TrEMBL record:
This is Succinate-semialdehyde dehydrogenase/glutarate-semialdehyde dehydrogenase. GO terms for molecular function: glutarate-semialdehyde dehydrogenase (NADP+) activity; succinate-semialdehyde dehydrogenase (NAD+) activity; succinate-semialdehyde dehydrogenase (NADP+) activity. It comes from the Bacteria. The keyword Repeat does not apply. It is an enzyme of class 1 (oxidoreductase). Pfam families: Aldedh. It comes from Rehaibacterium terrae. InterPro entries: Ald_DH/histidinol_DH (IPR016161), Ald_DH_C (IPR016163), Ald_DH_CS_GLU (IPR029510), Ald_DH_N (IPR016162), Aldehyde_DH_dom (IPR015590), Aldehyde_DH_Superfamily (IPR050740), Succ_semiAld_DH (IPR010102). One of its GO terms (biological process) is gamma-aminobutyric acid catabolic process. PROSITE patterns: ALDEHYDE_DEHYDR_GLU. The active site is at residue 256. Keywords: Oxidoreductase. CDD domains: ALDH_F5_SSADH_GabD (cd07103). NCBIfam families: SSADH (TIGR01780).
């Protein structure tokens, strides 16, 4: 892999403003999911390294917190400019370690960097309040102050955006941060740390610990009393365990967890727009996103026309190495991920589903590729209707009425994202308000941006990322009563 700035390929821990090896001297391999080749060997942190990073963050906190919001925002803007200057190298790193097509990787770098600029500007808009006092000799103030040291655990499917979406608001609020990037995709995270170092972030403000032993680092993050906030993106099962572990020190938590997104197409929908939206939503990152359409509900009256249009476009999608021209779908992240998709499709077929397109692995391309797939006759009891597929599979269900569609869409413990296509204004309002989801796309399937609050309801999480609400997750509200003023 050729980078314009080769020193962005960092492989050590970033603690207290310096690159260093893990205390135990161990390393782990990062591979290319398209070829299986080794990309790099990265420092393998243990519990002691995580504790060092927390100590560095705690030591840096008073100085960082004392800077003005404008000073913190200025440093974040320097970071934003450096990320922008090195966007192509970051995209190449991402495609190599994560597998998504290069065009998608470029788009993610731009999207992720949007959070840095947004929160650099939001730093100056953390407002408190003066509250009418109960007596004339006192004043009542509500101050907003940084929560303290933040620990962040990020996922492999968006190696840049999931990090900037957490780091940028935390730093803007005046917190210091320790990040555990994913074992599968640590290289983009380390490159971001190098750019933060070049931007002039004070030592200890941002720390990165890479590891192959996530439970050991997670235990330190959740039990160390110096950490006052945990931000996690990942599975609901792991999120529940982390939340329980944080209870011992009563940490604040933000959890962006799993989803089971419905995608509803009503009989008055613009079918061409709905098909385009579904393909964009489902096949981005080979279906490996928490807001991918997981259950596609199509009304009886337009079902056959919709499926015909859909299959024509899915059949034209190209699968391959993300660096190859024209590729729309890259590999799944691991062989285990491919095996999960195979299991879910086999379970559905055994229970009566019919493969309309695809439905097989693509060993001629490599061990982690799976064909874009369309399944018909899917019912809500099948495993792929209950679990996140995390692969390029569209499972189709029919429905008769609006009430039925809403009831089936909401019949899940998850509540992250939902989508629907319909033309009537009254229906659009009814359905948008009736869906029990934190994110709803009405006639739009690409809905994430830095200005909007991202987060789930029910078992899909706690808190919001992005928007003015995102920075609030890293602030405490302090009440001050000024007396003796009469």
């Amino acid at each position: 892999m050729t980078l314009d700035a080769p020193d962005l390929l960092q492989t050590r821990l970033f603690i207290d403003g310096a690159w260093r090896d893990a205390r135990a001297g161990k390393r782990f391999r990062v591979d290319d999911p398209a070829s299986g080749d080794t990309v790099a060997e990265v420092a393998d942190a243990g519990a002691a390294d995580a504790a060092d990073a927390i100590a560095a963050a705690e030591h840096a906190l008073p100085g960082w917190r004392a800077l003005s919001a404008t000073e913190r925002g200025t440093l974040l803007l320097r970071w934003w400019r450096l990320i922008d200057e090195h966007a192509e190298d970051l995209a190449r790193l991402m495609t190599r370690e994560q597998g998504k097509p290069l065009a998608e990787a470029r788009a993610e770098v731009s999207y992720g960097n949007g959070f840095v600029r947004w929160f650099a500007e939001e730093a100056r808009r953390v407002y408190g309040d003066i509250i009418p006092a109960p007596a004339g000799d006192r004043r009542v103030l509500a101050l907003k102050q940084p929560v303290g040291v933040v620990a962040a655990i990020t996922p492999w499917n968006f190696p840049v955006a999931m990090i900037t979406r957490k780091i940028a608001p935390a730093l803007a609020a005046g917190c210091t941060v320790v990040v555990k990037p994913p074992e599968l995709t640590p290289l983009c995270a380390l490159a971001l740390a190098e750019l933060a170092r070049r931007a002039g972030f004070p030592a200890g403000v941002l720390n990165m610990v890479t590891t192959s032993d996530a439970p050991a680092i997670g235990e330190v993050f959740t039990t160390d009393p110096r950490v006052r906030k945990l931000s996690f993106t990942g599975s609901t099962a792991v999120g529940k365990r982390l939340m329980a572990a944080c209870a011992g020190t009563v940490k604040k938590v933000s959890l962006e967890l799993g989803g089971n997104a419905p995608f509803i197409v009503f009989d008055d929908a613009d079918l061409d727009a709905a098909v385009r939206g579904l393909i964009a939503c489902k096949f981005r990152n080979a279906g490996q996103t928490c807001i991918s359409a997981n259950r596609v509900l199509v009304q009886d009256g337009i079902y056959d026309r919709f499926v015909a249009l859909l299959c024509d476009q899915v059949a034209a999608l190209t699968v391959g190495n993300g660096f190859d021209e024209g590729v729309r779908i890259g590999p799944l992240i691991t062989e285990r991920a491919r095996e999960k998709v195979e299991r879910l499709v086999a379970d559905a077929v055994a229970k009566g589903a019919r493969i309309r397109l695809g439905g097989r692995a693509l060993p001629e391309l490599g061990t982690r590729f799976y064909a874009p797939t369309v399944l018909e006759n899917v019912d809500p009891a099948m495993a792929l209707s209950c679990e996140e597929i995390f692969g390029p599979v569209i499972p189709l269900q029919r429905f008769a009425s609006e009430d039925e569609a809403i009831a089936r869409a909401n019949a899940t413990p998850y509540g992250l994202a939902a989508y629907f296509y319909a033309q009537g204004q009254a229906r659009t309002w009814r359905v948008a308000e009736a869906l029990d989801y934190g994110l709803v796309g009405a006639n739009e399937a690409v809905i994430s941006n830095e200005m909007a609050p991202f987060g789930g309801m029910k078992e899909s999480g706690i808190g919001r990322e992005g928007s003015k609400y995102g920075i609030a997750e890293f602030l405490e509200i302090k009440y001050v009563c000024l007396g003796g003023l009469g």
